[in-house]
Write a structure and sequence with these properties.
The complex is a heterodimer of chains A (385) and B (380). Chain A has helices spanning 26-38, 42-55, 60-72, 76-89, 94-106, 110-122, 129-145, 149-163, 167-177, 192-206, 210-224, 230-240, 244-257, 262-274, 278-291, 296-308, 312-325, 330-342, 346-359, 364-367. Chain A is an all-alpha fold and 385 residues long. Classes of the chains: A mainly alpha (385), B mainly alpha (380). The interface between A and B is medium-sized, with 24 and 28 residues.
């Protein structure tokens, strides 16, 4: 997915240039710069905007236009500087955060890029459809790189529903599905087939095409069944189909290959709870919570298992810990309410039930993240500052 | 293989004039072999050129960098420095300079070519493909080796982006232009097996399969039927359960022994349940033999599996028209035409269907479009 968004959609229509004046005032430069931009004389426009912001550094539109033109020429480092100046002085710079993040992605300043995607999301993810698609995609790539795979897949899934299975999207889904903390441009070339097969299976699962999902998931198993994360990924595909037995089998296989695989332990524990085999769930979840004490889902699985095996006091404690780590998770509140009811703590149960009702329409995948991700939502173009 | 091609590109790029006709190469001047302490632009640029011509590339890089500090938009400096950096495998730096270079001269095909090649090396494949294709459309100023390299990289990138037919067409054009065949074996094999990998991404235990497929495809192109038969038989014997191999063999056999081709296509569909091209080739063969009842479900499945694939709609349209369902057939053919207006076969199908339906104005329009598409220079 090449980032080729014309930022010019954000710009206002310019007036014609004033010709023949011996000296250029700031006002004349503004007019000529805008005219050059509208006439696609990009290099002239860049020179004129550069001159304009040199004369008047508080000219926010100038920084924005300069940044946008440099961005369109893939001159990301230079665009980044202009966009930073724009953000520093514009009263409502929200869309510029996304462009700045995209520039920082290109200049490999990944931590800054993540921060600016988050700043953009906090402002409601404004921008055109194209900006939202490109920014959301690159944000997902960075989430994958940072090991936040469910959040990345959540964003990619939304793109898949909208855009279909483009090769770039399939590659990104493959990396996130296999829990590979890499960008498409930096994983080993020899893993291309592995990533592609997983990406295809993930995409078809997202597109609700179970036969094609199975076809690629089986090819993945045949070729790479001994690789870490492959069985875990297949387990998540069976979870999609609510095939609990097959799901559990895959997690067990994963744990044979990767004995410390916490997500496989947690998901297997939850499957056992769903299957009313909570006694088997508890030791798995205990181990997962011990390995990753800040994993809210591990505490959730453990709490639920304890409640279902007649240890509501301990269960409530684990669920309270889970709630502390993921306060927006409706599922945790639901089981916590159950635990309080079992303990006869009616008021607390009522409070948690109310919280569950308030939260239940929120996306669980986001609620479980320690740092909340917001889904970009569509909005109109930003107003010129 | 790729390394060899890249080096030849750099050799050509570095030794040639800057690609823009608007910028003349800076004249050379006498300087010593050591890096001088020159501080003005004229002197620095002359010293840089001299160092480059004397193959003192480290000195040349240093001097071009200093000259560009004084004059950042100096096209010759950007060009030579970027090619020198590329040669030293400093691709990120080369890429950034080339972006500045093409921003100054957006019509310089070789500039886009070098930029695309740099982006290939930094694994920005989508951008690389865009920029290499742009270089092709602008032209490369008679640089034959560079053109061959650009074609090669475009072809392998098209395969990686699952545009197998376009890739195959480019590879065939390269064979016809006399390109060294050995360098094309793996790209042909990957495209023929519809495997979206670069040659460098082939898993070690699949290289043999890819090479057999590529050699077989090249044998077909050279009309060496016995050799193709032998290679494909060997491929089936060694890799008979792998996706794609029966489709490739079947596609070949449909032209020479259709019954065997049908058998291979059916085998492919047992292995690759959702293989759309196998369905389409099989449907086409059945339609050719006027077995429309067998062709119809295959074409319908293909449309269901790939609703955006114009060839699937085309095939379904052809079968429906042949079965006498003119309205249904025209509907499918119009869907196909909307998705791929440049495909002449769809236009011919529609011309015949409109004529049969008594829609003479529409038929006339299709005829005019066919004539336009068949004009020399029209893209097919």
């Amino acid at each position: 997915m090449v980032v080729e968004i014309s930022l010019l959609v954000f710009l206002f229509i310019a007036t014609p240039p004033v010709q023949g004046l011996p000296q250029k005032s700031f006002g004349q430069i503004v007019q000529q710069a805008d005219a050059a931009r509208v006439a696609d004389r990009t290099n002239d426009a860049i020179a004129l905007y550069s001159e304009g912001v040199r004369l008047r550094p508080s000219w926010s539109e100038g920084w924005w236009s300069l940044g946008s033109l440099l961005y369109d020429q893939d001159r990301f480092s230079e665009a980044e500087s202009s966009l930073k100046r724009f953000i520093a002085i514009a009263p409502k710079p929200a869309p510029a955060y996304a462009f700045l993040a995209l520039c920082e992605y290109e200049t490999h300043e990944y931590d800054h890029a993540l921060q600016h995607f988050q700043a953009w999301a906090r402002e409601g993810s404004p921008g055109t459809d194209e900006l939202i698609d490109v920014a959301g995609f690159h944000w997902a790539l960075l989430l994958t790189r940072g090991g936040r795979f469910p959040q990345a897949l959540y964003l990619l899934d939304a793109k898949a529903q909208k855009l279909g299975g483009t090769p770039a999207l399939i590659e990104a889904m493959g990396l996130a599905s296999l829990r590979m903390p890499s960008l498409p441009e930096d994983y080993p070339a020899q893993q291309r087939e592995l990533v592609w097969l997983a990406g295809k299976a993930a995409y078809y699962a997202s597109a609700h095409e179970p036969y094609r999902t199975q076809e690629y998931a089986n090819r993945l198993l045949t070729r790479y069944g001994g690789q870490p994360n492959v069985h875990y990924f297949r387990g998540t595909l069976f979870a999609f189909e609510k095939d609990r037995s097959a799901e559990a089998e895959e997690y067990e296989q994963e744990l044979k290959i990767s004995p410390q695989h916490v997500p496989a332990m947690v998901e297997l524990a939850l499957v056992r709870v769903y299957q009313e085999r909570s006694a088997e769930a508890v030791p798995l979840a205990e181990r997962a919570a011990a390995l990753e004490p800040k994993n809210s889902r591990a505490h959730y699985a453990l709490g639920w298992g304890l409640v279902d095996t007649g240890r509501p006091q301990e269960g409530a404690r684990e669920l309270e810990r889970a709630k502390q780590l993921a306060p927006d998770s409706a599922a945790i509140r639901f089981i916590l309410a159950k635990a309080y009811r079992t303990l006869g703590q009616k008021e607390q149960a009522k409070r948690e039930s109310a919280a569950f009702l308030a939260l239940k329409d929120k996306q669980e995948v986001l609620a479980y993240s320690q740092e909340k991700t917001r889904m970009p939502k569509q909005s109109g173009p930003p107003k010129q500052q | 293989m790729i390394a060899g091609i890249v080096l030849s590109v750099v050799a050509v790029a570095g030794s040639a004039q800057t690609p823009s006709s608007a910028h003349k190469t800076a004249s050379t001047a006498k300087t010593g072999t050591a890096v001088p302490a020159a501080s003005n632009f004229e002197q620095l640029s002359k010293d840089a050129d001299r160092a480059r011509e004397e193959n003192r590339s480290d000195d040349a890089i240093h001097l071009y960098q200093r000259a560009l500090v004084l004059r950042p938009a100096w096209p010759e400096g950007l060009w030579y420095l970027s090619t020198l950096l590329y040669e030293k495998e400093r691709y990120l730096e080369a890429r950034d300079l080339l972006r500045q270079f093409v921003a100054i001269d957006a019509e310089a095909g070789p500039g886009w070519a070098m930029l695309g090649l740099s982006e290939f090396q930094t694994r920005e494949y989508s951008r690389a493909l865009d920029h290499l294709q742009r270089a092709m459309s602008l032209g490369l100023g008679g640089r034959k080796e560079m053109a061959q390299s650009v074609f090669y990289f475009v072809a392998v990138l098209l395969t990686r982006f699952e545009q197998y037919n376009d890739s195959m067409n480019m590879l065939l054009a390269m064979v016809k232009s006399g390109q060294q065949l050995e360098s094309l074996v793996e790209p042909f094999g990957l495209a023929a097996l519809r495997t979206p990998f670069l040659p460098s991404e082939i898993p070690p235990d699949r290289r043999d399969l890819i090479r057999m497929a590529g050699q077989g495809a090249l044998a077909i192109e050279a009309q060496h039927q016995d050799e193709a038969d032998k290679l494909f038989s060997g491929m089936i014997a060694a890799y008979g359960n792998e996706p794609g191999v029966h489709f490739l063999y079947g596609a070949y056999l449909l032209d020479v022994r259709p019954e065997d081709g049908i058998r291979e296509m059916k085998r492919e569909l047992e292995i690759s349940l959702s293989h759309v091209p196998a369905r389409l080739r099989l449907a086409e063969e059945y339609a050719k033999e006027e077995h429309f009842e067998q062709a119809l479900p295959l074409a319908e499945e293909a449309v269901k599996l790939e609703p955006k694939e114009p060839r699937a709609h085309m095939m379904l349209g052809e079968v429906l028209v042949a079965k006498g369902d003119l309205a249904g057939g025209i509907h499918e053919l119009e869907s196909a035409e909307k998705a791929a207006p440049q495909l002449v076969r769809i236009r011919w199908d529609l011309l015949r269907a409109y004529t049969a339906a008594g829609r003479s104005d529409d038929a006339k329009h299709e005829k005019e479009e066919i004539e336009k598409l068949n004009r020399p220079g029209a893209s097919l």
